Amino acid sequence: MKPWLISRGAIALMALVGGAGLASADPLAGIWNGQFQQVGEAGTYRVTLDASGDGIKVDYADQSCGGTLEPVGEKGNSSFYIETITRGGIDPATGHGCIGGNVTLIKVGDTFVWGWVGEHKGKPLVASATLEKAK
User: Fold this and answer.
1) Secretion signal: which residues (predicted)?
2) What does the DSSP assignment read for the chain?
3) CA distances from 14 to 90, 97, 122 (A)
């Protein structure tokens, strides 16, 4: 992916507040999958949120990168996170890879709307997806 890095993969959008682990009553508990699209880019890319253990992990399989989401707040049906890429950052030779950003998750019925915002070299990057719980 170009430096359309939603965290290069990401629009990591949305995970729920969780510190030392998510309670079973937490609507985000479990594994959530979706296809995100970055504004201004063709194609879609897989995003997976894993909130089944301690913390929230994000994986962008198509970009070979991933990281974690740190909860920073919530209001109503929305949760807000800071994404940190811990695997597969930017390749300086190609400029491709993943960058961390800010993720918003909005609970809508049985799904989450995932939104991701970041910047690369001073340019804004935006991505979004609908996440469904893995069966």
Assistant:
1) 1-25
2) --S--BTBS---------SS---TT-TT-EEEEEEEEETT--S-EEEEEEESSSSEEEEEGGGTEEEEEEEEEEETTEEEEEEEEEE--B-TTT--B----EEEEEEETTEEEEEEEEEETTEEEEEEEEEEE--
3) 22, 20, 23
Let me know how long the chain is.
135
Alpha-carbon span 71 to 16, nearest angstrom: 7
Phi and psi at residue 108, in whole multiples of 5°?
A: -130, 105
pLDDT tens, position by position, 45-70? 999 999 998 899 999 998 899 999 99
Other CB atoms within 10 Å distance of the CB of residue 108? 11
Instruction: Give CA–CA dist 39/29, Å, rounded.
Output: 28
| Chain centre to alpha carbon of residue 100 | 9
**Do 29 and 35 touch, CB atoms closer than 8 A?**
no
Burial class of 5 by CB neighbour count within 10 A (0 to 12, 13 to 18, 19+): buried
Average pLDDT over residues 84-109: 91
Point out which residues pair with 56 in neighbouring strands: 69
